[in-house]
Write a structure and sequence with these properties.
heterodimer, A: about 375 residues, alpha/beta, Rossmann fold, 2 domains, 7-stranded mixed β-sheet, 6-stranded mixed β-sheet, about 40% helix, about 20% strand, globular, B: about 180 residues, Pyruvate-ferredoxin Oxidoreductase, domain 3
């Protein structure tokens, strides 16, 4: 059994990194991520964790340092937000293309301009196509548990793809709640030491970071795509194994909540899913056929699960905390594509809410569901709500 | 206690407002078997600026992550805020207002619908802690007035959250405020 503590998601993730015995951490401070690496630094200072903490001059260097650690066969961790994640952009593709199984906590924050320290998911959504697995988390407990799951997923030889933990700034990063911190022995049994098939070794000199051209390059990319496909299965397997070991699991790629007999569904990612659960419970108590689908894995996109969960529904309301300017929320577009060709697809309505840390109260989510149910919203472009 | 208590703390940067919410949440969640969440709402993060922090305490699991607009309890650590911050905004009818002040009630201009607990926490903090930092003192007053958390749980939470050297004095400050408020009601 673990120990019950009152922690925010940032502290919970730091515990996860400690329990995963990560020997290399490199990061540059930025709100709202900073308290993750502060907590890790405090673990190191108190002797509760052994790791090389590499101080760097930028986020770009932080991820480069982690890449170096991974190249010689070490687990590594970094965390960032917003401008920091944007500054890492170049290195993100180096890491995923090099198949280095790193874990990065992206504590979601708006991007400038206008400048804002507050939360939305624009920063990680902008990194959608960098080849990283992206998992969007709902609670501090899920953040700790998924940190442990993320190493096992990334390091699985069928996957060898880095994982980005997407953690809503403030909604999760600064909200304290009950978290069970697992025992080290239980974590050791769940997460074996890293065993990379290829690593730099002075006794067997070889190089990494090579060039590839034309068909060779395309083949490499196809392999990344295939690994993402296999990751769908591995994410589910690892979540199920975690459930057996610790008694908690999160539905793997997606969680369907109260979808039995639903005619309407709300679809969302991250911290607002918690608020949405209360709204759905309330409407169900009134006899309304409303359900909720939490998208936990955004990349790889759980196409089959989305189709199975939403087939035959009358209407679906998708809430994005991001905007792909000139079209709509990114999750909404992906969801429409995933549903394409179904025999009886639901009408999909996109809503953009909670940007720049603006509040998403239960009444707003309820109103979104009602508008979708009445067919009052646009099916073509995302509609900004609460502005 | 209501099935859901929503508590809003008002103070100034440096008075331990955010820590007050953490201690209260720890006391309720870890030591009284309740469900709780605590979160700050930083404005400008600087000493002296108005700061608010929040704690939700409930019997059932807490899943919502939206802001609190209609608190059931408001705790004011610094009565100079009355001049610039509408501290009683949204307070539900019959809700508690727990205020640190040495002034008279009539001087503060408080809403008639609120239940009021006025305590000179600054004097207690100066006396017991030696510094005018009133977060733990006000938590003692909050516990005595509203019963939202017990004193024993509060003392254990103070021991968890504060650095070891500060624990005993802050427990004493919470206890002193608790006893003074209890003696009055």
């Amino acid at each position: 059994m673990g120990e019950r503590k009152f922690l925010h998601a940032n502290a919970a993730i730091a515990h996860g990194v400690r329990l995963a015995r990560v020997p290399v951490v490199a990061a540059y401070p930025i709100t709202p991520q900073t308290s993750i690496v502060e907590k890790i630094a405090s673990f190191l200072a108190e002797g509760e964790m052994e790791a090389e903490y590499i101080k760097v001059e930028s986020e770009h260097s932080a991820l480069a340092a982690c890449l170096g650690a991974s190249a010689v066969g070490s687990r590594a961790f970094t965390a960032t937000s917003s401008q920091g994640l944007e500054f890492m952009h170049e290195m993100l593709a180096y890491v995923s293309g090099g198949r280095y199984p790193l874990v990065l906590a992206a504590v979601n924050r708006s991007v400038a301009l206008p400048w804002s320290i507050w939360g939305d998911q624009q920063d990680s959504i902008q990194q959608r196509d960098t080849g990283w697995i992206q998992l969007y988390l709902e609670t501090a407990q899920e953040a700790l548990d998924t940190t442990l799951q993320a190493y096992r997923i990334a390091e699985d030889h069928r996957v060898l793809t880095p994982v980005m933990l997407c953690v809503d700034g403030f909604l999760l990063s600064h909200t304290e709640e009950i978290v069970e911190v697992p025992d080290q022995a239980a974590v050791d049994a769940f997460l074996p030491p890293l065993d990379l098939p290829f690593k730099l070794d002075v006794d067997y000199p070889a190089t990494q970071g090579m060039g590839a051209f034309g068909q060779q390059y395309a083949r490499w990319r196809a392999e990344q795509q295939q690994a993402m496909g296999r990751a769908r299965g591995v994410i589910g397997e690892v979540d199920a194994a975690f459930g057996v070991a610790f008694g908690r699991s999160y539905g793997g790629l997606v969680e369907a909540y109260r979808m039995e007999g639903a005619e309407l569904a709300l679809v969302a990612m991250g911290g607002i899913v918690g608020t949405a659960r209360e709204v759905v419970d309330e409407m169900r108590a009134e006899g309304r056929p409303v359900g909720l689908m939490k998208v936990r894995a955004y990349r790889p996109l759980p196409r089959a699960e989305i189709r199975a969960a939403l087939n035959g529904l009358r209407a679906v309301a998708v809430v994005d905390r991001d905007c792909s300017f000139g079209y709509e929320g990114a999750l909404c577009t992906d969801l429409k594509a995933a549903l394409h060709g179904l025999a009886s697809p639901p009408a999909v309505y996109g809503f953009i809410a909670g940007l720049g840390g603006s509040d998403v109260p239960p009444e707003m989510l309820r109103d979104i569901i009602e508008r979708a149910a009445a067919g009052e919203a646009s099916k073509d472009e995302g509609e900004f709500v609460g502005i | 206690m209501r099935a859901l208590e929503e508590i809003r703390f008002h103070g100034r940067g440096g008075q331990g407002v955010v820590l007050a919410a953490t201690i209260l949440g720890t006391a309720a969640a870890i030591y009284e078997g309740k469900h709780a969440t605590s979160f700050p709402s930083f404005g400008a993060e600087r000493r002296g600026a108005p700061v608010t922090a929040f704690t939700r305490i409930a019997d059932a699991p807490l899943r919502r992550r939206s802001q609190i607009y209609q608190p059931t309890i408001v705790v004011v650590l610094d009565d100079s805020l009355f001049a610039s911050v509408p501290v009683a905004n949204g307070l539900v009818g019959g809700g508690w207002l727990v205020v640190n002040s040495h002034r008279r009630i009539s001087e503060l201009g408080l809403p008639a619908s609120a239940r009021l607990c006025l305590v000179d926490a600054t004097a207690i903090a100066r006396e017991v802690l030696g510094v005018p930092i009133t977060n733990t003192t006000m938590l003692g007053a909050l516990a005595a007035a509203t019963g939202v958390v017990g004193l024993a749980a509060l003392e254990r939470a103070i021991s968890d959250v504060l650095p070891t050297a500060l624990v005993a004095r802050n427990q004493a400050a919470a206890r002193a405020a608790y006893e003074r408020v209890v003696a009055r009601v």
